[in-house]
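User: Working on a comparison across species. This one is DUF3473 domain-containing protein from Tannerella forsythia. Can you predict its structure so I can line it up against the others?
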Amino acid sequence: MILLSFDIEEFDMPFEYGLSLSWEEQIRISSEGCRKILNCLSRHEVKATFFCTARFAENAPELIREIGESGHEIASHGYEHSAFEEAHLKRSKDFLETLTGQRVEGFRMPRMANVSDAALFEAGYRYNSSLNPTYLPGRYNHWHEPRTWFWQNGLLQLPASTTPNIRFPLFWLSFHHLPGALYRRLALRTYKHDGYLLTYFHPWEFMPIQQIKGLPYTVTHNAGNNAEVRLDKLIGFFRKRNVPFGTFREFIETLPVIS
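Assistant: Here's the predicted structure for DUF3473 domain-containing protein from Tannerella forsythia:
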């Protein structure tokens, strides 16, 4: 199964590079990027999982409701993207459930940072997808962690996919920087080896953020229309091979239950 996921957040990345962007622009960029993603998913008739911050959902409630009503899974990405308190775990979950009428079972920490399993369990989550089991300079080193799904502290852990052996990450950065055909081949190899593929992107990647002066090339390369084309080709590549797509919730139902 192919598990596409999208982290929907206020577009605060410019602040990491000493830039500024109005709140309205942060919401607009992510909202319009999300529309592009939804159109692509609808065109291919596939479902995905959307990890949303509550702050974004507060400012785009109709969009978040539409995502849920379209059959996609809504999960939590915290209350806000650049600030975290453990109380936000339940607060964001409750808000998203009230907004969408959909049970929120999953969580992903912004920037794939560490989060307490005990706190997640207490807040009522079923799974945690906050692990990228590779080495990313300046961010984290998770080479010692399991590469595929595993149970830990009463929670199902769903790491982002990396290739077998060398653990090359198949997340948004490699999606933009590798030649498209190479990325798809690595994704297919990983799918065949693991039995599933889990990757993640952001709505702002599908917007022309090259226009924001000061953002680094690593972030802006192949953003906008090129990202739309790449996503379309990635989905079509697996659809042509009759590989199923699904939400995280659907994937979990195929796994053995831990007693």
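For your comparison, note: Strands lie at 2-8, 49-52, 73-76, 106-107, 127-128, 135-136, 140-141, 150-152, 155-157, 197-201.

User: Helpful, thanks.
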